[in-house]
Design a protein that fits this description.
The protein has 401 residues and is α/β, with parallel strands linked by helices. The protein folds into 2 domains: 125 residues, Aspartate Aminotransferase, domain 1; 254 residues, Aspartate Aminotransferase, domain 2, CATH 3.40.640. It is 40% helix and 16% strand. The strands form 4 sheets. The chain has a 7-stranded mixed beta sheet, sandwiched between helices. Strands 11-12-15-14 form a 4-stranded antiparallel beta sheet, covered by helices on one side. It has a two-stranded parallel sheet with strand order 1-13. α7 links the parallel β5 and β6. The longest helix has 21 residues.
């Protein structure tokens, strides 16, 4: 089946990689960037870079306007009520650490934080370390055979002692959407705060935080075809009001003398120092680009491509697909073959995939695996990319099996 991507030409790096005989299938780690983003970065740096919020001069005013315009665009992209609910950080990991430290004062010894067995380290370790600092219990929700958080178990494990639930929207290893409405409802029934790691989910379809109903939603720009070094936190106003400041310095301060200081509320109160200005402006350009596309057509293309990937893997003997992947990515292992050896042979043939534990070491351990190969797709991938992958896979397996 031929599945060309009508958006492929919008991403100059794809053509450059092709000239290097490279096929890029590591999009869950980071994506390539559209020309619209490259143009925005060039314009910002070539027209006069300046710091934001602090200068009265024209370059500073232009930078501040573009910076705050992006805050509005992110709010619109997520269907947030207003731009004051959007905080910029230096990545999704930074965002989740902000929440773990900013909410720490709400916990008492014996309280419980609930996560799931599939969490990325970024949504595990900040809560694990908070639990250790404050003598809390970290409760881990198990998965069913398909890689979905077990709702029956969740109903038992989310209790009146639960103070916070933090779960991923779409697994970066299993490619499975998680049952967020049911999980968030269980947490809300116990008056627990809710955090959604949307790093993978935000890339596929428009996410609606108002409909979702979580207290916080976190994602990273670089997975959403935007610049790196930038993360986003959406927070409900009441939840943001409960955050304590955790980084201190310029911009976030309201008033200071040598012995006392007061601090701004969200969002600027949580953006200490010079923010990633160019990246924020670049993300705004990326969102403009993505907003101009036919999301229904993208969904159909990604779905058809994913089906081809799953089918091709299942046809090959000795391959075990992890979970029941629904979208965007597939992780797999091959009987009798080490994932690093297979990744090496794929790399030698110009196929860029990911190997290892995918920053979800506890999940891989629970599956009895040291690592796996992950193939992940983006809107610019096409069926020819998959043909090259399967040709390289067959040649590699012929050597290894």
């Amino acid at each position: 089946m031929l599945l060309p991507s009508p958006w492929r030409a919008d991403f100059p790096a794809i053509a450059a990689l092709q000239r290097q005989d490279q096929t890029y299938l590591d999009n869950a780690a980071t994506t390539q960037k559209p020309q619209a983003l490259l143009d925005a970065l060039t314009h910002y740096y070539a027209s006069g870079a300046a710091n934001v919020h602090r200068a009265q001069h024209l370059p500073g005013a232009h930078a501040t306007q573009a910076f705050e315009d992006t805050r509005c665009k992110v709010a619109q992209w997520l269907n947030a009520a207003d731009s004051g609910q959007i905080i910029f950080t230096h990545g999704a990991t930074s965002a989740l650490n902000l929440l773990a430290y900013g909410l720490e004062h709400l916990f008492n010894p014996g309280d419980e934080i609930v996560i799931s067995a599939l969490e990325h380290h970024a949504n595990l370790l900040p809560w694990q370390q908070l639990a250790q600092r404050q003598q809390l219990s970290l409760v881990v929700l198990p998965l069913d055979a398909d890689g979905v958080i077990d709702l029956d178990a969740a109903a038992r494990l989310i209790t009146p002692r639960t103070r916070l639930l933090a779960v991923s929207q779409l697994s970066n290893v299993l490619g499975v959407w998680q049952p967020l409405p049911q999980l968030l409802a269980l947490a809300k029934a116990q008056n627990a705060l809710t955090v959604v790691d949307g790093a993978q989910g935000v890339v596929h379809g428009r996410q609606d935080v108002e409909a979702l109903g979580c207290d916080f939603y976190v994602f990273s720009s670089h997975k959403l075809y935007g610049p790196d070094g930038l993360g986003v936190v959406f927070g409900r106003h009441a939840a943001l009001a409960s955050l304590k400041h955790w980084q201190f310095g310029g911009e976030m301060v309201q008033d200071a003398d040598y012995h006392h200081a007061t601090f701004r509320p969200a969002p600027l109160g949580f953006e200490a120092g010079t923010p990633p200005i160019a990246s924020v402006i670049g993300l705004g350009a990326t969102l403009n680009y993505l907003s101009s596309l036919d999301q229904t057509a993208i969904d159909a293309h990604e779905s058809a491509l994913h089906a081809l990937l799953v089918e091709g893997l299942q046809e090959r003997p000795g391959i075990r697909v992890l979970g029941s992947p629904q979208l965007a990515l597939v992780s797999f292992v091959v009987e009798g073959v080490h994932n690093a050896d297979l990744a090496h042979l794929l790399t030698e043939q110009g196929i860029a995939v990911r190997a290892g534990h995918h920053c979800a070491m506890p999940l891989l351990k629970s599956l009895g695996l040291a690592g796996a190969i992950r193939v992940s797709l983006a809107l610019y991938n096409d069926s020819e990319d998959l043909e090259r992958f399967f040709d390289a896979l067959d040649q590699a397996l012929e050597l290894l099996q």
